[in-house]
Amino acid sequence: MLDQELLDILACPACKTKVTLVKGSWLVCENCGRKYPIDADDIPHMLIEIGDKYRDVPVEKLEKPD
């Protein structure tokens, strides 16, 4: 699980808005809706291209990232 201090400073690389931890394994931008997976080693993958892939996926349909 990501440390709260890290969560407090993370922002979406596309729009610079705060991200929220969802389902323990996703960071979701509160503004643009991009979703960034967190891998099994607790490393967030916050590239815009990755966030774009999941932008239209509803939060409730997000599955645990590989």
Strand content: 15-25%
Radius of gyration based on Cα positions = 11 Å
- CATH class designation: Mainly Beta
CATH topology (level 3) name:
N-terminal domain of TfIIb
Q: What is the topology, as strand order, of the major beta sheet?
A: 1-2-3
SS class? alpha+beta
Instruction: Provide a count of the helices.
Output: 2
Shape: globular
Outline the low-pLDDT stretches: none
Please tell me the total number of domains: 1
Outline the structure in words.
With 66 residues, the protein is α+β, with helices and mostly antiparallel strands. The protein has one domain: Single Sheet (N-terminal domain of TfIIb). The protein has helices at residues 4-9, 48-53; strands at residues 19-22, 26-29, 35-37. It has a three-stranded antiparallel β-sheet with strand order 1-2-3. It is globular and about 25 Å long. The mean pLDDT is 95.
